[in-house]
Amino acid sequence: MTPSVLMALAAIGRSASAFAGNSNTLPSTTTAARRTFLTVAARRNSNSRSQQLALSKKHARMAAAVAGSRYIHTSKYTMLRMSGGADDDTKAAPFTTWSFDAPCETMEFSPLHPATVQLADENALVTDDADLVIVGVYAPPENDGETSSAVELTGAAKALDEELGGVLSEVLLEDKKYKAKAGAATAVTRVVTVGSDGAKKTTKFALVGLGAADKISDVSSGAASKIGTAIATACGSQKGVSTCTVVLPSSVSLSEVSCSFYSELYADNRFRTGDKIKTPAEDLTSVSIVLEDSDNTATSTIEEGVKLAKGIYLTKDIVNSPHNVLNSLSLASSAVKLAEESGGTIQTTILDKDECEKRGMGAFLGVARGSETEPKFIHMKYTPKSGEVKRKIGIVGKGLLFDTGGYNIKTAMMELMKFDCGGSAAVFGAARAIAALAPEGVEVHFCVAACENMISSKSYVPSDILTASNGKTIEVLNTDAEGRLTLADALVFADEELGCDKIVELSTLTGACMVALGKGLSGVFTKDDDLAKQIADASEATGDKSWRMPMPDEYNELLESKIADIQNIGTRYGGAITAALFLQNFVSKDKPFAHVDIAGPVWDDASGATGYGAKLVTELIVQESKQ
User: Fold this and answer.
1) Residue 316 burial (CB < 10 Å; 0-12/13-18/19+)?
2) Which residue, 54, 234, 255, 399, could crosslink 304 as a Cys pair with Cβ 3.0–4.6 Å?
3) How far apart are CA 152 and CA 137, in angstroms?
4) Count of CA atoms in the C-beta half-sphere (13 A) of 198
């Protein structure tokens, strides 16, 4: 805006309606001020550039006087320009993001915590080189749900206690309420110890609960995961801890221990600078695990947990990323990056707008029309190293990178709508973990229709009729029920073009599911009992909690449209069910299909992204490979 126009605005009390140039709507003001504005308006409409820049000092002073503002004389334009061109000395942002003219095209991955988890040397003392020693202890047996006695030290814990002169027993005596529940830790006690080299040092000791002895090997108990979390918390809460030794029974799942250990130490520092950068357990360099009994597979199971943790890190990164970083372009580039780091087990294909139009993906493209960035249909194919495939599994994730609600704009929680990509985040995390774990016998197709639900002159609107790639027409009654539209074409792609034997889809689809189940569980919608059991078993094994939900056929009536094959919403009641029934229209009736609504557990208000879904999907695929 030129200085002349700014002064004219001051003359009329900075009125927006006056600036529109309509003299009939000018506010009441003095004749001089009115004349000044009309003069500027006329000159702005003139074809002469010199006339556009000219404003007499007399009129300028008059305008300023009328408005009561300070007069500033200027004889030329004062321009503010966004830097970013090739010739600019541009001040770089601390992270990769958009510029004024271009969207961001990449997303950074958070690195795994640098501490290593490994088996301890068999000949080393437990206290050698350890700043912190954590000893696992069993909970006393229960009778009718109540503990019958105090915690007793057994095995390696008892032997270490005797070596230390009863220090661990004293810890239990000081905390008589301690019941050694899985993952429950005691306070830290400092003891002067003597290492194998004869040197004295102060070592910190803590006990961690293993839970009941008869449940420690039961993965569904979640004991191993809680133990890993407790180890990470203890290391992080004690300043100056560089090395930690953990004494555990060989029956505990070291994969779960290492996975939860690293997951707990996740920190998203991609957008922080200086002293705002937070590193949990920043002094920690290594954790050594001492097993009571030898286990030749221990090292490999620890590595399995590390590989799974990397997948969870990526899931959290995607959900945590703001829209000025994560869009369809940067998610697509992340898929390419996954293929590059997979060692050849993942092949990534990105379908652009034209390819999607050729396939008739009208539902997906309808949602994507309003966005700055073009839609990207992401297809990642995992192939086992042997090349032998017994079955093909489709994993589909909702890829709404930001959801404004469209023209049915959201009136609350807008700032949280970056997590509407939680389904795609789970898919990406699982793809990363599966590529590293390399299960045999199963081919996995990861599909994400990536776009944003934004408002523009091109956006779809309520009453539009969209045509999905299977030919079904959809009446749009609400633009905030957009996820199911993008998923419709993704499901058709997995079903018809890829020919998957079964399909599991994950999405942050409905608030109705959160109302029904809260924020701790996902809702599982499927008519296939075998697939329902598979998901339930995977849920128990991983701690990604879920609950099977009903899919009554009579609710299909709620989706009947007056003018199209189907409408994209039902009534206000049973919204999670009608959303699931809507999706079933885009998968063959005889094909096992499950919709998992993860709207609740994908986000924690205190810590942000939870990483939900990555472990669940990975476990599902691992189960398939063993069948």
Assistant:
1) buried
2) 255
3) 8
4) 0
Set 44, 215, 270, 410: catalytic member: 410
Q: What is the pLDDT of residues 576-586, one digit of tens each?
A: 999 999 999 99
Note whether 409 and 449 are within 8 A (CB). Answer: no
Query: Cα torsion for 431, 432, 433, 434, to the nearest 10°?
Result: 40
> Of 407, 409, 388, whose CA–CA distance to 463 is shortest?
407
Task: Give the single-character DSSP code of 571.
Answer: -
Q: What pLDDT, on the 0 to 100 scale, is given for residue 413?
A: 87
Q: Which two tokens stand for residue 148?
A: 């019958």
Which pLDDT score is estimated for 3? 41
Q: What was the pLDDT predicted at 218?
A: 67
Question: Partners of 117 in the beta sheet?
Answer: 287
User: Considering just the CA atoms, what is the radius of gyration of the chain in Å?
Assistant: 31
Candidates 204, 392, 484, 502; catalytic one? 484
Low-confidence ranges of the chain (pLDDT < 50): 1-86
Whether 81 is catalytic is: no
The sign of the CA dihedral 329, 106, 492, 404 is negative
pLDDT score, position 129: 79
The reply to whether 410 belongs to the active site is: yes
Q: Which tokens go with 331? A: 């998610």
Give the whole-angstrom CA distance, residue 241 versus residue 155: 26
Sign, CA dihedral 77-83-88-89, equals positive
Count the Cβ atoms, other than its own, within 10 Å of residue 585: 19
